[in-house]
Fold this sequence. Notes:
This protein has helices at 5-23, 26-31, 37-50, 60-63, 67-71, 74-79, 96-115, 130-133, 162-171, 216-231, 246-255, 263-272, 282-288, 292-302, 307-314, 319-334; strands at 119-120, 126-128, 145-148, 154-157, 180-184, 187-189, 201-203, 206-210, 239-245, 340-342, 356-362. By secondary structure, it is α+β, with helices and mostly antiparallel strands. The strands form four sheets. Strands 1-5-8 form a three-stranded mixed β-sheet, with helices on one face. Strand 3 and strand 4 (154-157) form a beta hairpin. 19% of the residues are buried.
Amino acid sequence: MKLSPILITMLGSLLRLRVASAFTVPNAIQQTRPISSTLIRNAVNTEVEGGNKGGGRVSAGVKDTNILDKTDTSKSMKKQKQLDTNPPKGTRDFYPEDMRLRTWLFDHWRSVASTYGFSEYDAPVLESEALYTRKAGEEVTQQLYNFMDKGDRAVALRPEMTPSLARMVMAKKGGLNLPLKWHSIPQCWRYERMTRGRRREHFQWNMDVWGVQGVEAEAELLSAMVTFFENVGLTSDDVGIKVNSRLVITEVLTELGVPEDKFAATCVLVDKLEKVPLDAIQDDLTELGLERDVVEKLLEVLTNNSLESLSSVLGAESNAVKQLTELFDLCEAYGIQDWVLLDASVVRGLAYYTGIVFEALDRK
C-alpha cells in the first residue's frame, strides 16, 4: 500500500520523537512538537477522502475513521464494574487445603466401594429437565436450576443422580449384565433455602445396586456404610442408621382408604412433619382431600419403633414386617446390628423408592 505524503511526514515525525527521547538531549525533545490524535484523525480522513491514487489497496484500519476511539480503552475501563471475587451464592471455592480434605474423603468412599465390588460411573451435570419433572409431588422439582438453552431445549443441572442412572441403564436396552453394582460421587445442584452446612451445590456418594429383588442389596449397602464410618474412626455410639420400608406406609395408607395416586404426595407431607407441626400442612392436606384424622392415625402407626409393636399393628403376615425382619437378620449376619434401628417415621424418598429406605443420625 502507498501512503500519502501527509502520512509519511507524520510517521517520520513520530519516529524522530521516539529517537530523540532515547538518544538526544532534552532540548531536542522540547523542540519536537507532539502530534495530537486530532491531527492523525484529520490526516486519515484526508487520505480516505482523497482516494487511493497510488493504485494499491487501502487497509481497513485506514478506512475506519473511528479507529482511535475503538482502540481507546480508557472509557470502557471506567464503565466496567468491579469484579466480585465471591463465588455465586450457595457455592464455594476449594483452595488447596480444602481440596486435600475433600480428596481424603473421596478416597475413603472410593476405597469402600471398591472393597464391595462397585464400579465407578458418571453422567453429565446438565440433563434434560423432563428427567426430573416426570413424577408429580416431588419437592425436588421445585428446586431445579433449570433454563432454556440456546437450542430452545429445557435443561437442568442435576439435583440428584438416580434419574441419570436410570436413563443410562435404559439406554442400553437390556444390554448390561445384571446385577449392576455402580457407584459415583456426583456434584448436584438444588435451588433451595440455605441452612448451616447445606448449600445449593453439594457432592454425594452414591452406591447403586440394580437387578436384585430381595433385601440382600440393602443389607450390603448398610454394611458398606458402616465400613466407611469405622474407617474414619466413628463407632455405633457416634452414629446410628434409621431403617424403614415403603411397604409400611403403603399398607397403612391402603388401610386408611387413601388412593394410591396420592401416596407420593402424602409421603412428602408426612416427611415435612419432622420439621413443622400438623397444623402447618393442614391446607395441603385439604388440597389432597385427606382428613386430619387420617394423618393422625398414620402418625400413630409411624411412631412404632420396634418390629414387635409394628407387627401388632400390621399383623404377623404383613409383607412389610416380613421384609424388615429379613433385613435385620442379614444386618446381624454382617455384624452391624448395633448400628441399625427401626424408625417407621422415615419416609424420605418414598415418592420414588419402592422398598427399604434408611438415613444416618448423630447419636450424640
